[in-house]
């Protein structure tokens, strides 16, 4: 039997942007893969979860025991994780602990190698904290007993990547751009397709163990040049780019957070990393794994085609955990955790449950929220203004949802086809909020749709927030119910009406956090 049939490969971060694409590539090459994430529910929604050579495992990088269990029996591990809150004060410490735990678990499991995708670090003592952390993680992984291969990339271009989405939103939405200095800084972008080629190729080349390599595309470009390429490939009119040298990277990152789907917490480290010229210092990897590298124009064209055809495999917003609120887990007493406020509206429709469900799971993104879109947009801009994700994040697919998907400023917590859609608010709030859509068939064949908002306030500010938005619930929910009925072709029989009485406490089955 070949190594591919004998050896089990572990992928940490299997639901992230790169990991979600690497797992199917390894499976297609004949490897046995153990896909690891913090949420089994999220892993089970991935297409690769049904492959006969794929195992799913739940592990927390801050829990050594679960990590050791996930790595047992594997020969190699891909480390494709990093802090999803790079703007927080302790993100570097979290990255450090996660890397140390992985080294320990790899040694305990007797792994042959670690393969890490990190960032290209310039020779400059004033690099961003984000890049410093990436470099430190590489050092930690390389210092252990298990040989580590480090691949360092700059900008990754592909449908759904954060860099591509920033590029797309800026050029699509702005006919004129006042640009800071960083748009003229040189970098060496690489296609996601080529990143996957190098990552998977490391398994075939044992001489790469214990080595570090820069990986980049065939050409060195500036972001301004990428703007021009995107504009041409998208068939847009020429954009006016006005250079303004006194705009700081940090200030421009806040502007990016407002006009693009990428939140400020992620835009800041991305932009701060663009202050420095990041190009390959060596090209040894090309001699070991020769291939025809993808130029930026081709990479952007492919990404645009994927977006237009609605076949984006993974997205930057897929990464992260499902932070299911503890009060939403089955098993808690009704009085535990504090008072959960709720507001529910119900409507009865004549039949057509299937058509109604299709409209419910198509909500958000380009489709909008069927009612009061101006209010939703205003809430999204307010969220962006205070550093949240806002509405521009959109959705991965216009008519399909899976557990873990981002949906504007919501995250899909649970999907039961034809019955239930549960969303967790990821906007900036003085508390935690859930939005639930449920369908029930009556004895006579009619359909009842119930829309419920639930909110656990944090302090007095949270209570004041709930009562300030409560009056709008009638307007929004009644409007959404009528619009859903109209768009799905269902005849409205009763309602919409406010449902009185306490809502049930149990939201997520199992009594265990799905995050």
Automatic annotation (TrEMBL):
Signal peptide: none annotated. It comes from Maridesulfovibrio salexigens (strain ATCC 14822 / DSM 2638 / NCIMB 8403 / VKM B-1763). GO terms for molecular function: protein-containing complex binding. Residues 13-145 form the NAD(P)-binding domain. This is NAD-dependent epimerase/dehydratase. It comes from the Bacteria. Pfam families: DUF2867, NAD_binding_10.
